[in-house]
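Need tokens for this chain, all 277 residues.
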Amino acid sequence: MPHEIGFVDNSGGTLAHYKMLEKIRDVAVASGFWEVMRYDDTVANRELILKGQGYSGTEEIYVGVRTYQDASADYYNLCVATFTGYVPSNTFDTQPSARLSGVPAHNQRIDYWLTVNPQRIACCMKVGTPVYEHFYIGKFFPYARPSQYPYPVVCGGMLNGAEAKRFSDTTHSMPYKGNRSNFGMRFNTGIYLQVETHPWNNTYLTGTTQLRDTNSTYSLLPVMLTDTNGVYGELDGVRYVSGFNNVTENTCDPDWVVFQDVWRTGFTDYVALKLDT
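Here are the structure tokens for all 277 residues:
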């Protein structure tokens, strides 16, 4: 079951963001690609840590998701993470080389499009008014040999760490546009770089001019990670798609679904997410 489309709510007295955490666990495990290292639903901030096998079947890719919430401030969020290992005695936030990013969610209902493959987990959630919240945790495709770039992971959420923001915040944005604190790419130095992404950094494609469809056919462009030192690679199963005459939840073909950036609906505010099969 590499992808699932559905919803969770607060029926039965369990809050929706808690059920979303459980859903991520269930879909990841059912795929056969991920192993649960920790799942703790006995605490207020529930925790999930997974180890993925990668496309080689022999890798160790560590990602995590936990909840955090404040009823008085009316936010009920997820916090996604990447790690370089797993230490049972460490807290979630102090796992090796932890990188965290919050994702606004909901306590009542979350509609989700969740996709899992051997090296990464990606999701879009529709919550609240509604708005669309994204995350991507795990490896990307590096433009390098494994010996040159052995652990190319990204932690892409919506917020800079576990920020106390709800889905109604008007400043947060999806990670895929790049050069944002909510998108970190781990480099060989062990440092998470705040890289740009193509095509959003190309003014001829997403700036003064923009792409559109050709006879109702939309081109899906790779989301490439880059900075002044070069091009590092591209995301796995996430593409740029023009918003010209396009609508959220459209399908480009049976495997790709279009989503907007939170509440934004401009021509450059959309991505297509691949539903792995």
